[in-house]
Design a protein that fits this description.
single chain, 223 residues, mainly alpha, two-stranded antiparallel ribbon, 9 helices, 2 strands, 64% helix
């Protein structure tokens, strides 16, 4: 059973230089957070390691929080990250404009705690390559770039609860890259497929019950 980091004793923090599991480091970072606003660059620094997996996790976690404008910023950032992934360029930092985005400290704290929870749960069943290690290798990855760009576009769209499944997809993709676990990448694809189905269903519902009657009315009126 974990305790609320906001009530943890700061003197119980791990000593400098000691190895810390990612979930423990993130909970301690959340407990120390006291600024009025936190930039995404600072959130990424608190997350720890750089690299594509960490950045995807940093961009995914805030998407499920009710922070105004965060879906637009994260969606654009994901679409921007898809370009170097397609080319096979190394990705170790957020785009400058995205990195400067400010989040209230309480939401940044929740994002860190969410990342800690994801790391802790993933570490329980992650077992290295799972026979799918080729999916985690560096180099041009058009399949991954397409997935990241598509999920970024879905997060950007103002759909009811439309951020949750794409964010979950990106979180599992980031964890799969960070932990070098190919099975998590397959789970990410499954979550991405569900996100596409959900978005398509919302679009069809909006057309059937909203736009189609209006279109028929305008057509009849014109006739």
């Amino acid at each position: 059973m974990t305790t609320d980091p906001s009530s943890s004793n700061p003197h119980e923090a791990s000593p400098p230089g000691a190895f810390q599991p990612p979930h423990q480091r993130l909970r301690e970072a959340a407990a120390r957070l006291n600024a009025e606003a936190v930039s995404l660059a600072e959130l990424a620094r608190l997350q720890g390691s750089a690299g594509l997996g960490s950045l995807l996790l940093v961009l995914a976690a805030p998407c499920v929080l009710p922070v105004p404008g965060v879906g637009n910023v994260m969606g654009l950032a994901l679409m921007m990250l898809a370009v170097p992934i397609w080319r096979g360029d190394p990705v170790g930092a957020l785009p400058a404009r995205v990195a400067a985005f400010q989040m209230p400290a309480r939401w940044a704290r929740r994002a860190l705690l969410m990342m800690a929870w994801l790391y802790e749960r993933a570490a329980r069943f992650a077992r290295g390559q799972h026979g799918l290690g080729s999916l985690t290798q560096a180099g041009p990855r058009p399949w991954m770039a397409a997935l990241v760009a598509l999920m970024g576009a879905l997060i950007f769209l103002p759909l009811p609860l439309g951020n949750v499944l794409p964010a979950l997809c990106m979180a599992m993709l980031g964890l799969g890259l960070a932990l070098r676990d190919g099975l998590l990448l397959l789970y990410a694809w499954a979550a991405g497929l569900l996100a596409c189905i959900y978005s398509a269903a919302l679009g069809l519902a909006a057309w059937h019950w909203g736009l189609a009657p209006v279109w028929r009315y305008l057509g009849a009126d014109a006739g």
